[in-house]
Amino acid sequence: MKFLRGLLQKSRVTEQTTHQQPDGIHWHETMKPLSGYSWLIVALGGVLIACFCFFAQHQISYEYNRTIAETSKDTMNLAKAYEEHVRRVVAEADKDLLDLKKIYEQDGLSSPLMAAYVNNMANDPARNQVAICNEQGSVIVSFNEKAFLANISDREYFQFHRNATSDTLFIGKPIKIRISGQTTIPLSRRINKPDGSFGGVVYIGLEEDYFLDYYKKLDLGRNQLLALAGMDGFNRIRQVGDDYASGQTLIGSDLWKEIQSGRLNGSYTSISFLDGIDRVVSYRVMPDYPLIVMVGISAETALAEFEKRKQGYLLGASVASLFVLVFGYLVINRAAGLHRLNFEMTRLDRLNIIGEMAASIGHEVRNPLTTVRGYLQHFGKKAVFADYRDHLELMIEELDRANAIITEFLSLAKNKAVTLGPTDLNHVIQSIVLLLQSDALMRGSSVELDLEDIPEVLADDKEIRQCILNLVRNGLDATSKGGTVTICTTKAGSRVVLTVRDQGPGIPPEIKDKVGTPFFTTKENGTGLGLPVCYRIAQRHHATIEVDTGPEGTAVHFIFPQREKPIK
């Protein structure tokens, strides 16, 4: 049973605690919806928690934006430095191209400087190819003898210069050298004949690694990015960690969208569509060459310290919110406790007032009733009153009913003497079960027992009988014909519980607070004293009464206090 499980968890509550709640219904039965004061505490707590959350979110947002801004500044400075490195590499190669172009255009192959110049560039580790080809694409100058067998008329850079009219530096996409199989980045210029027509191409192939030397100087953490791309939308070289590649398209990427929108320099945060890594990237479009330099730091690395601070803000907000919740709960619980105490004191005051009245006038009322009953019995035996005998018997029955009410009334007396002694609760129940079953049979219902092995309790067996009779009869009144009232005993921790459970419709919520109030009843012929008497008996036994009610019925639990020492 849900109630018993809860009771087991409270089994360590001392008898002193039980004395503090001498005869009240458990808090969940008397607890009203939250009061205006409690709602004010809830609203204030909600506002404070919202403020904590807003502050934490504001700080997190501020720290995030600040971290991204600082990282963007760092990557932009690195992009500027990388731009200068690329500019120096390209400018040196372009100077050699212009020198070779000038020598060839002035003196042709007969120039003594030609061979010396080409052989000198052959010793440069940054160049893996130097060549001059004629207007048919045949290689006529190279430091690699095998290159003279090649024709490059199908190469992109050759076709570009053949179709172009201006002498523009062309930086092509990475290509494979047919002779050696090496990957190179071609830089080329157009050779003009004396009449200005196309006379061939002077070409230098740069090693990819030469552009990546700068990468070795960086320490941007895991998944750092260094890339060089052309304004045609294709990477010349791209390195991430130990992996590098070339030739990937940038068209459709966030970088390309930035450039297409007219932003030639900037920073952005995005997930790369090439490797799926979230990075803070800074880029610069070189004004003097059709190239784009990029430097990126992974968001994981950039935001590592921010994540630690973020966790601190979230933890702080959580702790503060938890404190508000606990404090609010304690305040509301305190208010609820005061409400319960006020409820209990009010009900006890009612019982005490009724008890004092019972003690003072109960016997004074009973004595004249006894006299009247005696005379009515006497008159009933006289022949002269034979015609009124039915009326006299009815008057006697009503006097007996009044006397029964007075007897219950006297049970409310606070100072009624009781004798508490070791009592076998199961035996008390079994001694009156026939009476209870007979009463139930007359109503078309039944009474069942569910008794467990329990220790003896300290009780007055006469008062306990009266309490059981009252509770069972209340249950039978609430149970429709064919229903069952069950009497249970069980041990919950160190306490003994007597439960009377009916199958009635339950106690309506609007009258739950009035349960136990003297003279309050919903029955047509009820006195409203049965349950108040039970509460008074519980008080005299230092016990408590708890009520569980619902659509499936009501259960009244009479809980005997735990004993520090066992009964002998």
Helix/strand layout:
Blueprint: H1 2-9, H2 15-20, H3 27-30, H4 36-107, H5 112-122, E1 127-133, E2 139-142, H6 156-163, E3 170-171, E4 175-176, E5 183-192, E6 198-207, H7 208-212, E7 225-230, E8 235-240, E9 243-245, H8 254-260, E10 265-271, E11 278-285, E12 291-298, H9 299-302, H10 304-380, H11 389-411, E13 421-423, H12 425-443, E14 446-451, E15 457-459, H13 461-478, E16 484-492, E17 495-501, H14 530-540, E18 544-550, E19 553-560
Parallel strand pairs: 14-16
Antiparallel strand pairs: 1-2, 1-6, 3-5, 4-5, 5-6, 7-8, 7-12, 8-9, 10-11, 11-12, 13-15, 16-17, 17-19, 18-19
Helix pairs in contact: 4-10, 10-11, 12-13, 13-14
Please characterize this protein's 3D structure.
With 568 residues, the protein is an alpha+beta fold. It has two domains: 2-26 and 345-560, Histidine kinase-like ATPase, C-terminal domain (Heat Shock Protein 90, 2-Layer Sandwich), CATH 3.30.565; 66-302, PAS domain (Beta-Lactamase, 2-Layer Sandwich), CATH 3.30.450.20. The chain contains 14 helices and 19 strands. The chain has helices at residues 2-9, 15-20, 27-30, 36-107, 112-122, 156-163, 208-212, 254-260, 299-302, 304-380, 389-411, 425-443, 461-478, 530-540; strands at residues 127-133, 139-142, 170-171, 175-176, 183-192, 198-207, 225-230, 235-240, 243-245, 265-271, 278-285, 291-298, 421-423, 446-451, 457-459, 484-492, 495-501, 544-550, 553-560. Strands 1, 2, 3, 4, 5 and 6 form a six-stranded antiparallel β-sheet that branches. The chain starts with a helix and ends in an 8-residue tail after the last strand.
